[in-house]
Amino acid sequence: MDVTSMSRWTRTKIVCTLGPATDAPGVIERLIESGMDVARINASHGDHADHAKRIQRVRHAAQQCDQPVAVLIDLPGPKFRLGDLPDGCCKLVEGSIVMLAEEGDTADAAGDRREGSSFLPVRNPELLAALRAQERVFLADGSVELKVKIAASISNRVQCEVLIGGTVRSGSGINVPESALNELVPTDDDRRHLAFAVSQEVEWVGVSFVQSASDLARVRALLPSGEQPLLMAKIEKRRALANLDEIVEAADGVMVARGDLGVETDLAEIPIVQKRIITVANAWARPVITATQMLESMVEHEHPTRAEVTDVANAMLDGTDAVMLSAETAIGRFPIAAVKMLHRVLAATEAVHRISESCEPKDAGPLADKLHPYTSGFAKDALNVAACQLAVRAGARAVVVSIPSMAGALTIARFRPDVPLVMITDSGRLYRTLSLVRGVAPLFSTALDGVELQPCIAQAREWLFLQGLAQPGDQAVLLSVSGLPGNSGGEADTLQLVRMSR
């Protein structure tokens, strides 16, 4: 019997950040069963030993659950962070005084507290030296705001007033939008984490604080030849927005990193910025993740707010490939409930909304309009367009594709037909990588033959029947790369409409 993995199908994907809250036995399995498609490792927290254990658990759990789950490792980038706090967190009260000091500088820390100030360690001494009086300092994705009162002196400590209070945790990010400090991507830490990511054979690497295509080129130059992780450009700096097209073109995927974006840019602009990034990513056929505070209240509470579920639905309607949970699953009290809620909201929204990117049955205009002006044009994609349009006109239940590469998959997925894109591959890495792409149902087979199409439809048919997405007598569109001479680019060149039967 053919060795074929039968994954479930969801249109919009779910990314979950792993952390202490997911380390208990059985939690990762339950995350996958609840809807997790991509497991994210934040290299800014923890060590490689912990990360390796979590990746191993994900691989084992995915195999047990018979699901494709990609692993995404986020590089820290040139990010300023708090050091380790004595109790893991600290509550800052509006109007109080806080002292920023180099991590490890514990002398007189108790005295600082007696004088009524909180003592916060900072991992980056160069930041302390650069801060100037009256500068604003944002902590924890901008939820806490400080103002510098006294800049660093001989002791290299900075006294600040708390303008907006809140809770900060060990490793919380520090943003200083007015600072001229800029470190090139990748940092020395990034290089170390990238080597680890390659050794773990992860599918995606998130490159933080990308500001130009050259940042991505420097990271890509460090990757070995052969199979390597794809690069996810995290858009979180104002300069990145100015260079958005060139960054998206150079990247393999994009993340709307709203945490730092909300600090580096005007908070009021974030909804429009999000829509713009998603639109550009869609036009370039790059998978895009919308991240940060999707269900933030579920870090502490079992149910989200109405505003949060609306935010999730709107991200899906904007055209995002995936939505991401951060603290909700990494350190939250209800990681499983958060994933289930995300899945419910996405399913409910998709059930009643005919996706704006879907193929229209009346003419090919909307599909032609999706072709980015910088791509090669409509002719190269004609068969992909025809497959998606035929699925709608014929009432087919799926578009089935034997896929040789990620690039080939994305040239089809960009048109987003309102039926499953069943993509069959004999590459384990590609099978997992595709789990991030909207609308795609990856199937893995060791018996795939690019010339013989019958195994493709047989495998897809069984999956569709199993999922309840089709029944005997329904039709499917079969799109394949034939492997004929002259087709070295891997473009689809065979199109069939087939009826499925037992």
TrEMBL record:
* UniProt xrefs under NCBIfam families: pyruv_kin
Q: What Gene3D superfamilies does this protein's entry cite? A: Phosphoenolpyruvate-binding domains, PK beta-barrel domain-like, Pyruvate kinase, C-terminal domain
User: Which residues are in the Pyruvate kinase barrel domain?
Assistant: 11-339
Signal peptide extent: none
Its protein name is Pyruvate kinase
First-level EC class: transferase
Keywords, comma-separated and alphabetical? ATP-binding, Glycolysis, Kinase, Magnesium, Metal-binding, Nucleotide-binding, Pyruvate, Transferase
Q: Which InterPro entries match?
A: Pyr_Knase, Pyrv/PenolPyrv_kinase-like_dom, Pyrv_kinase-like_dom_sf, Pyrv_Knase-like_insert_dom_sf, Pyrv_Knase_brl, Pyrv_Knase_C, Pyrv_Knase_C_sf, Pyrv_Knase_insert_dom_sf
